């Protein structure tokens, strides 16, 4: 059994989660304090959550394709995203970004506003408030959102297949391996990958529940 889809999936999910963590956290922090067009911005940032992954993949193909300005610019500096694992990571990042963003925003909005007002009264800058007050107080929810974001990236199929293809040993992830095995009539191999994916997903959900439960107990104290 070729285990390359497992390592490719983990690599893509890890890279995607690193970028998603910082981008989602900054977006959540910024949108929380928006006063105008807040609902519009929130909708734009959350739209990958409701779009079919194949639609997201198609839009990414248009954006990063060789005929696009962005694609030509990246090609001139030696960066290729189409049919590469890096492209799969970008697709996974776009798909999992709303999970991180909405989870982090929910955690930040639950922090007692009186703590923020007191910090501002003491002359703290907004970034200092984020680092010293918001992040420690909202950390359990942010950690749970990060875990879910990783799980979403790990199981991504549609957008990844559209932009990165199905290249054995290069871009074939576990989800695509299930599809490929079924297309080839190898149900036994497909079942093995399904069991691996289910095991990873269950472990991730248990970890998320533990983090959420610890955060709830901390707030009750």
What would your notes on this structure say?
The structure is a single chain. By secondary structure, the protein is an all-alpha fold. The protein is 78% helix and 0% strand. It has ten helices and no strands. It has helices at 4-32, 38-46, 53-64, 69-76, 85-109, 113-121, 126-154, 158-164, 174-183, 187-220. Helix 3 (53-64) packs parallel to helix 8 (158-164) and helix 9 (174-183) packs antiparallel against helix 10. It is globular and about 65 Å long.
Which terms would index this structure?
221 residues; mainly alpha; 0% strand; globular
Largest sheet: none
How many angstroms does the end-to-end distance come to? 50 Å
- Average of the residue pLDDT scores: 89
Order of helices and strands: HHHHHHHHHH
Model regions low in confidence, pLDDT < 50 over at least 5 residues: none
Q: In total, how many beta strands? A: 0
Helix content: over 70%
Shape: globular
Number of helices: 10
Structural class: mainly alpha
Query: What value does the Rg take, in angstroms?
Result: 20 Å
- How much of the sequence lies in strands comes to under 5%
Brief overview, please?
The protein has 221 residues and is mainly alpha-helical. It has 10 helices and no strands.
SSE blueprint:
Layout: H1 4-32, H2 38-46, H3 53-64, H4 69-76, H5 85-109, H6 113-121, H7 126-154, H8 158-164, H9 174-183, H10 187-220
């Amino acid at each position: 059994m070729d285990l390359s889809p497992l390592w490719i999936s983990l690599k893509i999910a890890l890279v995607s989660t690193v970028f998603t963590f910082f981008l989602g956290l900054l977006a959540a922090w910024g949108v929380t304090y928006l006063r105008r067009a807040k609902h519009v911005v929130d909708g734009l940032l959350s739209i990958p959550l409701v779009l079919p992954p194949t639609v997201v993949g198609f839009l990414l193909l248009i954006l990063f394709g060789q005929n696009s300005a962005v694609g030509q610019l990246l090609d001139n500096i030696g960066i290729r995203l189409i049919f590469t694992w890096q492209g799969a990571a970008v697709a996974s990042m776009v798909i999992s970004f709303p999970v991180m963003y909405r989870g982090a925003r929910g955690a930040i909005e639950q922090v007692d506003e009186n703590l923020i007002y007191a910090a501002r009264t003491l002359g703290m800058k907004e970034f200092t408030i984020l680092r010293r007050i918001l992040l420690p107080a909202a950390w359990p929810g942010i950690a749970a959102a990060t875990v879910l974001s990783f799980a979403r990236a790990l199981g991504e199929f549609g957008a990844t297949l559209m932009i990165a293809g199905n290249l054995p040993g290069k871009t074939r992830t576990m989800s695509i391996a299930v599809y490929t095995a079924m297309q080839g009539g190898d149900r036994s191999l497909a079942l093995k990958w399904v069991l691996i994916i289910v095991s990873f997903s269950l472990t991730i959900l248990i970890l998320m529940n533990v983090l959420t439960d610890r955060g709830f107990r901390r707030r009750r104290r």
